[in-house]
Design a protein that fits this description.
The complex is a heterodimer.
Chain A: H1 2-22, H2 26-46, H3 50-75, H4 90-110, H5 122-126, H6 128-137, H7 141-162
Helix pairs in contact in A: 1-2, 2-3
Chain B: H1 15-33, H2 39-57, H3 74-100, H4 107-123, H5 128-146, H6 153-184, H7 189-196, H8 202-219, H9 227-234, H10 237-262, H11 267-290, H12 295-316, H13 319-346, H14 361-364, H15 366-380, H16 386-400, H17 404-430, H18 444-462, H19 465-475
Helix pairs in contact in B: 1-2, 1-4, 2-3, 3-4, 3-10, 3-13, 3-19, 4-5, 4-10, 5-6, 5-10, 6-7, 6-8, 6-9, 7-10, 8-10, 8-11, 9-10, 9-12, 10-12, 10-13, 11-12, 11-17, 12-13, 12-16, 12-17, 13-15, 13-16, 13-18, 13-19, 15-17, 15-18, 16-17, 16-18
Classes of the chains: A mainly alpha, B mainly alpha.
């Protein structure tokens, strides 16, 4: 039963992901990305990680994608912008992807997972958020702090790349090399 | 649940990272108050970084801290010093360069400092999670720095290319990390080695291959190098220098620690992969560099070729080979920085990029030409420079470990590389100046950088013993 649901979610996610990159219209791509992310959230539920599933929905679908759609609407990215994006490389790339899929599939089926599965009982599931919180603030506290720096630098970067320089003699007034 | 005491929370072990973050935040705040003269921020950063060298060179006892996430050993300390040196030189040559390019914003300096923090986190990461977070911090900073001249289409193009391919390679690396986790049940490097033993698992092989691809992107190894020339050309030249030195050194530090600590039992497998990568990278880099007319692109291909040689040291997998990697990266920091400093000085919009612009430079600027020739000869590996000592060290380690063919390929490609390095020297000394390209006056900052890098290049070549000893001592804990 669970397997069946997994395959439904997984196949929908993969199909949606392929549609994201093959759609000509940016808005359609964004909607298929939402579909894909929702399927991933559903797979997190199947993997007994309701917290991650909720975070996935809140942050990616709720916040990131809405902002993304908003940006696409404001910037008015037309259909023209997405034409000719494969540059006639579709056949070689499909062959490569298929070959990669075969090799990886073979290795995955002949390999074996040695990670012990987590506790699936009711009590452990109820504590899901608590377990993650504890792990983040004890064992993973150092990478967690570095992530805060990463977010800071991403924020600065967004401002740096978007904001224009003010004042006379600013960079934009001078047509530079192409 | 993990008891707090078993985590070994030791602030001393992350002191360099913490202090550098503090410095970066200080510069970030100062940027708000200093409105006109942004180079003050550069001086503050440089003074802070110099003060940081003794702190990061001092090794505390090598014991995993923060629940096994961080290992502040001599290996990390050695790399931290390389990163700080690279960051200092980069900031020094940036101040004049930014003025020349009419970029008058202060964010540049603290982004460089944050990228250095990312490199340090990578070098001391003892866990795949820490490693990945550090790598992203460094890469994110570089995406911004490469596209920093937003008025220039080439800079933005380079930034976008680097961003897309960098994100792809991070994804591949993460995929490899997740397979490794699946096969071993841990992300901690020493724990992975303990769990796996010599147990053959195709899952893990897949993980190792994907991790190799991820690092291959970052160090610009052959099939994954496509971004390098465009990004190096588009980025502001000091950023290119930091990218080719700091980013490469940090990626090699993480590369070494992962493969030598977590996968020592699989040396036969990853050794084969790296053998092919190393040989292909050396041949491709040095052959394609011959055809380049743009000096930055030529140096980009030369940095690809150097990545192949450095990888040879990693593949040899003994104290000589791994120590050779560390020594090579130290020498590379000096000689490559020197070459890029001269390119940054000369480059001005369209002029000074083509190799033919260097025609007759020797008659106008004899000292600069001499220094450029010195750096290029060192990159080519001519004695008595540091480049020779480093190459000699790595090749002899490869021969000791019976990698005869690989060492032979290395020597042949070094001979080939002499051709394109010598081409620049030929233009400088043998050609008549064509009058168009004018080399601007080098200011005090450039002179300091050029003198120190030239001194370092020569000194490391004449008297390499203490540095090689340090490098060998630094890799000892990884080889247990």
């Amino acid at each position: 039963m669970e397997q069946l649901f997994f395959y439904i979610f997984a196949i929908t996610a993969v199909v949606a992901a392929i549609l994201v990159v093959s759609m000509r219209n940016a808005i359609h791509s964004a909607f298929f990305l939402i579909v894909c992310l929702l399927q991933v959230a559903a797979i997190f539920v199947l993997l007994r990680s309701p917290f991650l599933a909720a975070v996935q929905v809140f942050i990616y679908v709720g916040a990131v994608m809405v902002l993304f759609l908003f940006a696409v609407l404001v910037l008015d990215v037309g259909k023209e912008a997405f034409r000719e994006h494969m540059h006639s490389q579709s056949v070689p790339s499909l062959v490569m992807v298929a070959a990669l899929l075969v090799i990886m599939g073979f290795m995955m089926f002949s390999g074996k997972l040695t990670v012990p599965p987590g506790a699936y009982n009711e009590a452990a599931l109820a504590k899901n958020t608590e377990v993650i919180g504890r792990a983040v603030y004890t064992k993973f506290v150092f990478p967690f702090e570095v992530v805060s720096l990463l977010l800071l630098i991403a924020l600065i970067g967004a401002v740096v790349l978007v904001m224009r320089e003010r004042g006379k003699g600013a960079d934009r007034n001078k047509p530079e090399d192409i | 649940m993990i008891p707090l005491s078993s985590l070994n929370i030791s602030f001393a072990s992350i002191m360099p990272e913490m202090l550098l973050t503090g410095l970066a935040l200080l510069v970030l705040v100062l940027d708000l108050f200093i409105r006109e003269e942004k180079s003050v921020l550069g001086y503050v950063s440089v003074i802070g970084l110099i003060a940081l060298i003794p702190v990061s060179a001092r090794t505390i006892e090598a014991k995993a801290s923060f629940g096994g996430m961080v290992m502040a050993d001599e290996f990390a300390a050695y790399f931290n010093v390389i990163f700080i040196i690279a960051a200092i030189f980069t900031i020094l040559i940036s101040m004049d360069y930014l003025k020349k390019m009419n970029v008058r914003r202060g964010e540049y300096y603290h982004i460089i400092l944050f990228s250095t923090v990312g490199m340090m986190v990578m070098a001391s990461a003892n866990d795949l999670v820490t490693l990945y977070v550090g790598l992203e911090l460094m890469a994110m900073s570089f995406y911004i720095l490469v596209a920093y001249r937003i008025a220039s289409a080439r800079s933005v193009e380079g930034g976008l290319k680097y961003f897309v391919l960098g994100a792809l390679s991070s994804g591949i690396l993460l995929y490899g990390i997740s397979f490794t986790y699946g096969a071993s049940g841990s992300t901690n490097l020493s724990e992975i080695a303990r769990q796996l033993g010599g147990f053959q698992n195709p899952f893990l092989i897949l993980g190792i291959v994907l991790i190799t691809v991820g690092f291959g992107f970052k160090v610009a190894a052959f099939p994954f190098h496509v971004w390098t020339p465009d990004v190096y050309e588009g980025a502001p030249t000091p950023v290119t220098a930091l990218l080719s030195i700091g980013s490469k050194a940090a990626s090699f530090a993480a590369f070494m620690r992962v493969f030598m600590v977590a996968f020592p039992a699989f040396h036969a497998q990853w050794g084969e992969i790296l053998w092919m990568l190393s040989a292909a990278t050396m041949i491709f880099g040095s052959v394609v560099a011959i055809a380049q007319k743009n000096i930055v692109r030529m140096l980009a291909y030369s940095s690809i070729a150097h990545a192949g040689i450095i990888m040879m040291g990693l593949l040899v997998y003994n104290d000589l080979g791994a120590g050779g990697v560390l020594y090579y990266l130290l020498v590379y920091a000096f000689m490559n920085m020197g070459a890029f400093a001269i390119v940054a000085l000369f480059r001005n919009d369209r002029i000074g990029e083509s190799i033919s612009d260097y025609s007759g430079l020797a008659s106008r600027r004899p000292v600069l030409s001499f220094l450029m020739a010195l750096f290029l000869l060192s990159l080519a590996g001519i004695p008595p420079t540091g480049g020779f000592a480093a190459k000699f060290f790595v090749f002899s380690a490869a021969i000791d470990a019976r990698y005869y063919w690989l060492a032979a390929i290395g020597v042949v490609t070094t001979a080939i590389s002499l051709f394109f390095y010598a081409k620049v020297i030929f233009y400088m000394y043998m050609r008549e100046p064509d009058g168009e390209a004018v080399m601007p006056e080098s200011g005090v900052l450039y002179n300091v950088v050029l003198l120190v890098t030239a001194f370092g290049t020569v000194f490391l070549g004449i008297y390499p013993t203490p540095f090689i000893d340090m490098a060998i001592k630094a890799v000892k804990p990884l080889l247990m």
